[in-house]
Design a protein that fits this description.
heterodimer; A: mainly beta; B: 113 residues; mainly beta; four-stranded antiparallel sheet
């Protein structure tokens, strides 16, 4: 079992729809969770971080964390073609400072 | 500097050669990470520095890979006897301290032919 798992996609949604991206992790003591966006040929950039159970909203983005289910998700409301990218889930364990990344989900938003 | 700087941006080398990849983190960032990313994959952790010391090098794939950060700022990733399987984008990231945002450089694309 991989430490951080994501569906590779592509996830295709129409412009204006809600895109839902999911991530599961195996380390129960994980304490910090991050979503990075990576455009093709570019480096990852942080879009959301979440540390406690529940929802965290920032503009069109909402991160959701359920530690009991070891599940973290990212919702993108009013999706735009410019949101088309690969979304990487990253997890930091309580026991180490390294970030473990999933393989990423490729999102395609079509006009 | 304004961001994390990595040089060179591209490196083509022959199998068996030695290469050095450089990372210049954001000024004042004490934590520095090296990752390797292959096509279609997420970044794979290699090594993490806190200051001058390697706090966690558990991701280095074998003893051909080595990294240093002698003055707690610039870091160099060194790969000996390169193999074609080493071809990837090598990413460097830095953060002020743990639990703060990690900023990535643009990466070095290494191609071993």
């Amino acid at each position: 079992q991989k430490e951080v798992e994501q569906n590779s996609g592509p996830l295709s949604v129409p412009e204006g729809a809600i895109a839902s991206l999911n991530c599961t992790y195996s380390d129960r003591v994980s304490q910090s969770f991050f979503w990075y966006r990576q455009y093709s040929g570019k480096s990852p950039e942080l879009i959301m971080s979440i540390y406690s159970n529940g929802d965290k909203e920032d503009g069109r983005f909402t991160a959701q964390l359920n530690k009991a289910s070891q599940y973290v998700s990212l919702l993108i409301r009013d999706s735009q073609p410019s949101d088309s990218a690969t979304y990487l889930c990253a997890v930091k364990s309580a026991n180490t400072d390294k970030l473990i990344f999933g393989t990423g989900t490729r999102l395609q938003v079509f006009p | 500097g304004a961001g994390v700087s990595q040089t060179p941006s591209n490196k083509v080398t022959e199998k068996g050669k030695y290469v050095e990849l450089r990372c210049d983190p954001i000024s004042g960032h004490t934590a520095l990470y090296w990752y390797r990313q292959s096509l279609g994959q997420g970044p794979e952790f290699l090594i993490y520095f806190q200051g001058t010391g390697a706090a966690d090098d558990s991701g280095l794939p074998n003893d051909r890979f080595f990294a240093v950060r002698p003055e707690g700022s610039v870091s160099t990733l060194k790969i000996q006897r390169t193999e074609r399987g080493d071809s990837a984008v090598y990413l460097c990231a830095s953060r002020v301290t743990v639990n703060t945002e990690a900023f990535f450089g643009q990466g070095t694309r290494l191609t071993v032919v």
